[in-house]
Here is the input.
Amino acid sequence: MALLFVSAADDPDQWRTELRQRFPDLDVRIHPELGDPANIDVALVWLPPPGLLASLPNLKAILSLGAGVDAMLDDPTLPADLPLCRLVDPSLTRTMTEYVLLHTLKYHRMQDLFARDQRHARWQLRLPAPPRQTTVGILGLGVLGTDAARALAAHGFTVRGWSRSPKELEGVACFAGPDQLDAFLSACRILVCLLPLTRETEGILNRNLFRRLPPDARLIHVGRGAQLVEGDLLLALDGGELGGATVDVFTQEPLPADHPFWRHPAVDITPHAASYSDPSVGAEVVAENLRRFFERRPLLHVVDRARGY
Ligand code: NAP
Ligand code: GLV
Here is the structure.
């Protein structure tokens, strides 16, 4: 029984230590040191090289180290019959909510405008209206969107959310499906994207959508790069439809040095750093699925491959 750990973004030694505290006999192998691939039963992965999982002849389950599994589903060699579980981890959720709050407050308190004033040595008093007068809309009311929505509502913002299936969430106006997208967008002064990347959501953040927001709206994009038509964001910013954007995810990561986002005065960039897992917390979530795996019980958070998330 061996577990293969694959991730360039997580500390493998810390994860191995956390997993061994819970399963002292578990053989944890760190990619690229596979040992005998025939012994590997479970893979714990973030962005595994395409084809790697298909090369493990006795693999029985794939556990993602990320919430989004679009890159894995994009690999045509991904074994079709194995359960693929995404990460639902309180530390990932907490850090995402922190990020959404941070940047919502940045726009609410007009810190983006103060930063521009500072570049021109311009002293201009700007005082915000109470948060209830700012509607923040969240595309995606899943694990992350729901937590962010609750935190924003608790802070006093007027919050609305959009999902595929109808929802009820205290203090949050809920909209669902393509038919309610226009009504949802019409009041969002700050729009947060927390959707998974699927066939339906690819390119959803485009100029047509930006035009359906109130004038001078702000975008906080933390879903996946391919949801944003990057050229349309620049057109919307330069055309005055949007007043600013905070972008954490990109069609090409790392973002190339000559990409216009780097130098655009209304774009704030973070390097796919919005949320991250604390291994001492994440390992407990993974451990629960490993226990279920050992005991042949149903795994948690299995991705619906037909739906794409
Ligand atoms: P989740 O629990 O699966 O929630 C996804 C939400 O999106 C659900 O509410 C779902 O609606 C909604 N949705 C999906 N397709 C839709 C569509 N076509 N129309 C309307 N709503 C749709 O996922 P999560 O854990 O919250 O994570 C969301 C995404 O965040 C991940 O997939 C990943 O891409 C991104 N992420 C980014 C970072 C980062 O650091 N930037 C970190 C973690 C995650 P239903 O509820 O009706 O199914
Ligand atoms: C990060 O982007 C994740 O999907 O967890």
In short: The radius of gyration is 21 Å. Residues 66-68, 92 surround glyoxylic acid (ligand 2) (CB under 6 Å).
